[in-house]
Design goal:
The chain has 111 residues and is mainly alpha-helical. It has five helices and no strands. The longest helix is centred in the last third of the chain and has 23 residues, at 79-101. The chain is globular and about 45 Å long. The protein starts with a helix and ends with a helix.
Length: 111
C-alpha cells in the first residue's frame, strides 16, 4: 500500500473516524478521508492548528499538483511542486506518527 494512503487511513483509524462501508475499499477517494480528517480535534502530541494546516496543505496539493488538468501534460509538473508535495506529506506522516504515540494501538498500526 502506498505510504501516503496508509498514513491517511491510519490517521482515520486513530481518530476513530467512521467511514461509510463500501465493498471495494479502494472506492473511497482521498477527499473522502480528508473531509473527515478536517474536523478532528488536536491531541496531546498534535495541536489542532498543526493538524488543520497539514490537512489544508494536503488538500491544496491534491487539487493542484496531483490534478492532471492543472498541468498541460503530466510529465511537465515543475520539480518544486513535487518537492512541496513530498514535504507536505512528510509533515502529515510525522503528525500521524505523533498521534500514534498517544496510543498503544497507534504504535501497532505504524509497524
Amino acid at each position: 500500500m502506498d505510504p501516503c494512503v496508509k498514513g491517511v487511513r491510519i490517521a482515520c483509524e486513530l481518530k476513530k473516524i467512521k467511514m461509510e462501508y463500501r465493498l471495494d475499499p479502494t472506492a473511497h477517494q482521498a477527499q473522502d478521508f480528508l473531509d473527515k480528517l478536517k474536523g478532528c480535534p488536536g491531541s496531546a502530541n498534535v495541536s489542532k492548528a498543526e493538524w488543520d494546516a497539514a490537512i489544508h496543505r494536503l488538500e491544496l496539493l491534491k487539487n493542484v499538483v496531483m490534478n492532471p488538468y492543472s498541468h498541460p501534460s503530466a510529465p511537465n509538473i515543475p520539480k518544486q511542486e513535487v518537492a512541496d508535495a513530498i514535504a507536505a506529506m512528510t509533515v502529515f506522516l510525522d503528525l500521524v506518527a505523533a498521534l500514534a504515540a498517544d496510543t498503544w494501538r497507534g504504535a501497532v498500526l505504524l509497524r
